[in-house]
Amino acid sequence: MICYEVLHNGERLCVAGVPSGVLVAGLTWGSHGEGADSPWSLDLRVGGLTENTHVDWVLQPLRVGDEVAFRIVEAEKSDPPVDLSLRTRCGHTIQTLKCRGSTMVS
Fold first, then answer.
1. Checking CA distances to 41, which of 28, 59, 67, 100 falls within 20 to 30 Å?
2. How far apart are CA 63 and CA 88, in angstroms?
3. How far is Cα 44 from Cα 66, in angstroms, rounded to an integer?
4. pLDDT for position 93
5. Strand 53-61 vs strand 68-74: parallel, antiparallel, or unpaired?
6. DSSP string, 12-62
7. Alpha carbon 105 to chain centroid distance?
């Protein structure tokens, strides 16, 4: 299966992948208004969707100077996700499961 190997400052965070569905990895920057604790935020997110389940491997803040690398790899299975959210067809969350160390996605 096609997977993303994700590294942050040279440290491997995960190998993320779903057997069928959608796999997403990206960075999000946003500015905040006056009075906020910080003028901006920057986050790394790696997740996906398989059937009616949203899966997440990484959601963490980044700082100026951080390096993020994505490598496309082929693997028999991915690392287990840290979160699973079961959704209805309308997109409503039914249940969110914390699953670090699980083998629910392979």
1. 100
2. 35
3. 11
4. 54
5. unpaired
6. EEEEE--SSSEEEEEEEEEE--TTSSSSEEEEEEEEEEETTEEEEEEEEE-
7. 13
